[in-house]
Design a protein that fits this description.
- This protein is an alpha/beta fold and 761 residues long.
- Among the domains are: 117 residues, Chitobiase, domain 2 (2-Layer Sandwich), CATH 3.30.379.10; 61 residues; 146 residues, Galactose-binding domain-like (Jelly Rolls, Sandwich).
- 24% of the residues lie in helices and 30% in strands.
- The strands form nine sheets. An eight-stranded parallel barrel has the order 8-9-16-17-18-19-20-23, surrounded by six helices. Strands 31, 33, 34, 35, 36, 37, 38 and 39 form an eight-stranded antiparallel β-sheet that branches. The protein has a seven-stranded mixed β-sheet with strand order 1-7-5-6-4-2-3, covered by helices on one side.
- Strand 35 and strand 36 form a beta hairpin.
- Helix 2 runs parallel beside helix 3, helix 4 packs parallel to helix 6 and helix 8 runs parallel beside helix 11.
- The chain binds acetamide and zinc ion.
- The site of zinc ion (ZN) has 8 residues, from helix 10.
């Protein structure tokens, strides 16, 4: 009965859905008309001007690939037709606007620019029915449209894993279909140099190949022990750039400097401050190495490496300029990206040449040395008529005069660069890193935290903290596809879709027209389009999800939800399964909880102790980057084995001491405290040491407990009290993280401390 009622209520909605096409990104304005138009194999395309050929060809190719036919193109035709009308440069020429009209007599496409015409075709494609048919019926509609941002970018890292020319072209098609207009091609990094440079043949003979690759999530469970690599010839690069240009996509090549240079150094060791020091001697000890340990090698694991380009030697500049000389004719776009991120200064501090350069040029420190290098390269690039882009580290030590900044470490770099009147492209990790998981329960290996569809959709490239007068400097935004854990086409598509659809509305759709509710309505159609393209995609948005909250009486609620249905089976401790509408379930003791819906399931273990679901406070609050769910995270009964991926279950601090105060609600006895923590030096994370314990009856006067004994094992820190304590309030004093020791990743920085649970017994 309930279901029938629901269906009746839904009918008007379904009717509306049939009326309003699912256009992604949502256009500026769309007015439904009366009637319809049908495309079949006899429909004619009329193009009065060869300048619209790219748009016409893309449309015909799309029809051929997805519906099995293409249309004849004529200069003139008197009957009904799909008409491409050139009104190029008649109206606002820099806006790339278009008008698309469908009525019973045909289709009219008018672009203000060639790009506008091309975008009209992308919209037209979305008016086609998703089902394959010889007769494609579309509703009468009139659309006026143009993009919100000029720079709508998508990056692909081809160094960590290499992708063929054919796959890069497919990627470009995907970008075009989402009205993305910049392809940032990350061509060089520690794990492989991927572009032929004729003057330096060893870059690809040596630098494009590594002797093995880390297996699993860093620091990994081993090494493939297989030679891996590949590169693009200059002829292939030209082919890709032309393919992109036909899709109104500009390719931005990235040549990393002065960090992330291991592959180039493997080819030309003299680029290093210390050509004699082996790559292996810098290699993180927790990762497995494959093959020759001597000399300079292409890296086999991920991260940031101390062996960078020497900024002291002239030879380095000669090399970098020679490379730029060959890059510039290959990439006709205005931008050259020089990286500039994550360059450790350890070698520069020890290098006589680098120190000499600092003295000679009156530089303050190694950060100014990095600025010296970037500014010198900018001058060179500017002289050749091109513009430099760098990651936000190029702000440190002074920004190059004309540089465009890509803000990736949050929004701060972008806000600062705009304040200095520099153009900015926003690409913050916390919203648009597509190497992050799409849900907390991601099964495949991914990097970093979680950037789900809602989060990406909700992103605004204009930071709320940016003064209005600076917003003109924000060119747009870009999502980044780092490929440490992306080895093949299916995984690449899975990480891209449907997040690219959300990104396209972030970049294109006017704020006033952006609506998650409308996006959710359109999403099923978009997923069917992905099916039509035979593209893989994530279904995480429709995943079964859990939320754990406080319940009265120091218990927990376990709440389940999904976008598909409220009905599912649940059971506890392997007992009888119950099928039903799931209200929050009360959990008040050790429990193995299990829920299933269709082919999805969640298993969650809850462990209770004297602190579970009690009031707790943290002082100060954790890092903004790792806030978890505040103090509740430490008493929610959940200890996850999935490390930082399930970021809600962790809190993190860097360089800050903090206290945890737990109200046990009554005088209670306890003699042992366990902290679920994390020891992961590769990520700058160290288990806390020398924790102090104090207790109180009034939360005002605390007395320290002396002679406690701590031991650490398997990410668990156990604190034993000398005798059983009796108190209502317990306070743990966690000192700030140690300085990271020399030789370890992040040496000299303050370590992170991560906690996920406090158990008191
Ligand atoms: C970056 O993610 N290192 C730019
Ligand atoms: Zn040096």
């Amino acid at each position: 009965m309930r279901k029938i009622l629901l269906l009746l209520l839904l009918l008007p909605v379904l009717y509306m859905q049939a009326q309003t096409p699912a256009i992604i990104p949502e256009p500026v304005s769309m007015t439904m008309g009366k009637g319809k138009f049908t495309i079949n194999r006899h429909t004619v395309i009329v193009a009065d001007d060869a300048s619209v050929n790219d748009a016409v060809n893309f449309f015909n190719q799309y029809l051929q690939t997805n519906y099995g036919f293409k249309l004849a193109v004529k200069r003139q035709h008197s009957g009904s037709a799909i008409r491409f009308i050139s009104r190029i440069f008649v109206r606002a020429p820099d806006k790339d606007a278009y008008q698309l009209t469908v009525d019973s007599k045909g289709i009219r496409i008018e672009g203000d620019t060639h790009a506008g015409t091309f975008y009209a075709v992308q919209t037209l494609i979305q008016l086609l029915p998703v089902e394959k048919s010889a007769s494609l019926v579309m509703p009468a509609v009139s659309i006026n449209d143009y993009p919100r941002f000029k720079y709508r970018g998508m990056m692909l890292d081809v160094s960590r894993h290499f992708f063929s020319v054919a796959l890069v072209k497919k990627y470009l098609d995907y970008l075009a279909l989402h009205k993305i207009n910049y392809f940032h091609w990350h061509l060089t990094d520690d794990q492989g140099w991927r572009i032929e440079i004729k003057k330096y043949p060893m870059l690809t003979q040596t630098g494009a190949w590594r002797n093995g690759t880390l297996v699993g999530r860093y620091p990994g469970t081993g090494n493939t022990h297989q030679r891996y690599g590949g590169y693009y010839t200059q002829a292939q690069i030209k082919e890709v750039v032309a393919y992109a240009a036909a899709r109104y996509i500009t390719v931005v090549p990235e040549i990393e400097m002065p960090g992330h240079g291991s592959a180039a150094i493997a080819a030309y060791p003299e680029l290093s401050c210390f050509p004699q020091r082996s790559t292996y001697s810098y290699y993180p000890k927790e990762c497995v190495w494959s093959g020759d340990t001597t000399g300079k090698q292409v890296q086999q694991t991920w991260g940031v490496f101390d062996d960078v380009f020497c900024a002291g030697k002239e030879q380095t500049f000669q090399f970098l300029q020679d490379v730029i000389d060959e890059i510039i004719p290959l990439f006709p776009g205005q931008y050259i990206h020089v990286g500039g991120d994550e360059c450790p200064k350890e070698n520069w501090k020890q290098c006589p040449d680098c120190q000499q350069r600092i003295r000679t040029n009156g530089l303050k420190d190694e950060h100014e040395l990095q600025s010296y290098l970037i500014q010198r390269m900018e001058k060179y690039i500017n002289q050749k008529g091109r513009k430099l882009i760098g990651w936000d580290e190029i702000l440190e030590g002074g920004l190059a005069p004309n540089a465009t900044v890509m803000s990736w470490r949050g929004e701060k770099g972008g806000i600062e660069a705009a304040a200095q009147k520099h153009p900015v492209i926003m690409t913050p990790t916390t919203y648009v890193y597509f190497d992050y998981a799409q849900s907390r329960r991601e099964d495949s290996v991914t990097n970093g935290g979680v950037n789900d569809l809602e989060k990406i959709y909700g992103y605004n490239p204009i930071p709320s903290a940016m003064p209005d007068t600076d917003t003109v400097f924000v060119l747009g935004a870009q999502a980044n596809m780092w490929t440490e854990y992306i080895t093949n086409q299916r995984k690449l598509e899975y990480m891209l879709f449907p997040r690219l659809a959300a990104l396209s509305e972030v970049l294109w759709t006017p704020l006033a027209k952006k609506s998650m509710e409308n996006f959710v309505r359109k999403l099923p159609v978009q997923l069917k389009r992905y099916d039509r393209w035979k593209a893989n995609y994530s279904r995480a948005f429709y995943q079964l999800k859990q939320k754990v909250t406080r319940a009265p009486g120091h218990a927990l609620y376990w709440e389940l939800s999904s976008r598909s249905d409220d009905w599912m089976t649940i059971n506890f401790n392997g007992g009888d399964s119950v099928w039903g509408y799931v209200k929050p379930q009360l959990i008040d003791r050790d429990t193995r909880a299990y829920a299933r819906q269709g082919d999805q399931s969640i298993s969650q273990k809850f462990l209770f102790n004297k602190a579970t679901a009690k009031d707790a406070t943290l002082n100060p609050a954790p890092s903004k980057n790792y806030p978890g769910e505040g103090s509740f995270t430490l008493v929610n009964g959940i200890i996850t084995e999935r490390k930082l991926q399930e970021a809600d279950y962790w809190i993190g601090y860097q360089g800050t001491a903090f206290t945890i105060t737990i109200d046990l609600d009554r005088d209670d006895n306890f003699s042992e405290i366990k902290l679920a923590t994390l020891q992961q030096p590769s990520s700058w994370i160290y288990a806390p040491a020398a924790i102090g314990v104090s207790v109180s009856d009034d939360k005002v006067n605390f007395r320290e407990i002396k002679d406690i004994v701590s031991s650490f094992n398997q990410n668990e820190l156990t604190i034993k009290l000398p005798q059983t304590a009796k108190a209502r309030f317990l306070r743990l004093h966690v000192p700030e993280g140690q300085r990271i020791p020399a030789g370890a990743p992040g040496a000299g920085s303050k370590a992170w401390v991560f906690l996920q649970e406090v158990s008191v017994n």
